[in-house]
Specification:
By secondary structure, this protein is an alpha/beta fold. The chain has helices at about 15-25, 40-50, 65-75, 90-100, 115-125, 135-140, 160-170, 175-180, 185-200, 205-215; strands spanning about 5-10, 30-35, 55-60, 80-85, 105-110, 130. Helix 7 crosses helix 10 (about 205-215) and helix 9 (about 185-200) crosses helix 10. The model is unreliable at about 135-155 (pLDDT under 50).
Length: about 220
């Protein structure tokens, strides 16, 4: 890794929090804040001017253009910009959507400064960061397993119903809604979920969704 300073943009509509984060990151060795923006549209205006950050610290809940829309726009137009999602929420659906939209990491707003620094370092140096919300097995599923040339689940045989379930679990549908969509009972859906947890070596709905995305079962 070279020693060049990583440029960061902060996109968050809470001015005090944003200013505090900017002051904090400008004191981190190896990082500088390139610009701040209230929402995705303001960020796009800065990128159009040629201000291209290495990392975008992106709030999820914003007016005008929220983090979900903004991350998807970045993925489609500036895939070289690494997205670190910032949120008050730790629910599965928010994490799944941000992963689908290209986020390389996800951190809560009430995290300590040391965790923010660790997250920035990980995104810069390894290309991903996930906190304790996302298990080590999920991290392993996100990243192809090194020299073996294999990724988790490559040799796993899935039934048609299991494949259908994985497609639906990668959306914002609740498990009850998935059961209705598949014309199955909630208990049967729970059975599919638990069986796939065991089969794929993951522990959360996020893990199932990431597996589906990485294997091309679900395409956002």
């Amino acid at each position: 890794m070279d020693n060049k300073t990583a440029k960061v943009c902060i996109v968050d509509d809470h001015v005090l929090l944003r200013n505090g984060l900017a002051g904090l990151m400008n004191n981190f060795t190896g990082y500088s804040v390139l610009f701040e923006a209230d929402n995705g549209k303001e960020m796009i205006a800065e990128l159009v001017k040629g201000k291209i950050p290495d990392i975008a610290l992106l709030d999820i809940n914003m007016p005008v253009m929220d983090g979900f829309e903004t991350s998807l726009w970045l993925k489609q137009n500036f895939p070289e910009v690494s997205i670190l999602a910032l949120s008050m929420y730790d629910d599965d659906n928010a994490i799944i959507r941000m992963l689908q939209n290209g986020a390389k990491g996800y951190i809560l707003k009430d995290s300590e400064a040391v965790e923010l620094r660790s997250a920035l370092d990980a995104v810069r140096d390894k290309g991903f960061y996930y906190s304790e919300m996302v298990t080590g097995k999920l991290i392993h599923a996100v990243n192809i397993a090194g020299d073996t040339g294999k990724s988790i689940g490559v040799t796993v045989s899935l039934s048609e119903r299991e494949t259908d379930f994985l497609k639906l679990v990668s959306t914002e549908l609740t498990y009850k809604e998935i059961a209705e969509r598949m014309s199955l009972s909630p208990r049967t859906i729970d059975g599919y979920r638990d069986a796939l947890f065991e089969k794929l070596g993951v522990r959360t709905r996020v893990g199932l969704a990431v597996y589906a995305i990485k294997q091309g079962i679900f395409r956002p």
